[in-house]
Amino acid sequence: MKPESIQTLHPLAGKTNKKIALDKYRYIREHLLAILHTAELTHTELMEALYARVKDEFEGGVQWYGETVKLDLEARDLIKRTHTQPVKYQLVKQERP
């Protein structure tokens, strides 16, 4: 039986994002939100922190799934980019994942 999937969103109007396995989406989402709950991070810092947290337990490309889910979280207004240099990511809603 094929695993359940989710069509992820893209923050730019008119662009589409990927359809991925729901369990992988939820796993990466939980970790991205937990990481951003503690600090604002640049894109590189965020992806490195994600990789360090999940590399031993996650099957698949951590960076690829991380980017796909990050874009989805931006589109859903759960995270946003700051207007600083360098750009950082932060939570929009301060709820615990």
Provide a short characterization of the protein structure.
The chain is an alpha+beta fold and 97 residues long.
What does this structure look like?
This protein is of the alpha+beta class. Helix content is 44%, strand content 12%. The chain has three helices and four strands, in the order ββαααββ. The protein has a two-stranded antiparallel sheet. The chain has a two-stranded antiparallel sheet with strand order 3-4. α1 packs across α3 (62-75) and α2 packs across α3 (62-75).
Produce the secondary structure layout:
Layout (H helix, E strand, L loop, with lengths): L4 E3 L11 E3 H17 L4 H12 L7 H14 L3 E3 L7 E3 L6
Q: What is the name of the CATH superfamily?
A: Winged helix-like DNA-binding domain superfamily/Winged helix DNA-binding domain
Which spans of ≥5 residues are poorly predicted at pLDDT below 50?
A: none
Total strand segments: 4
Q: Would you list the SSEs in sequence order as H and E?
A: EEHHHEE
Share of helix, binned: 40-55%
Number of helices: 3
| CATH structural architecture | Orthogonal Bundle
Give the class from helix and strand content and strand pairing. alpha+beta
Number of domains: 1
Over all CA atoms, what is the radius of gyration?
A: 13 Å
How much β-strand is present in the residues?
5-15%
Oligomer: single chain
Q: For the terminal residues, how far apart are their CA atoms?
A: 29 Å
CATH class: Mainly Alpha
Mean pLDDT: 94
Describe the biggest sheet? 2 strands, antiparallel
Strand order in the largest sheet: 1-2
Form type:
globular
Q: Could you say what the CATH topology is called?
A: Arc Repressor Mutant, subunit A
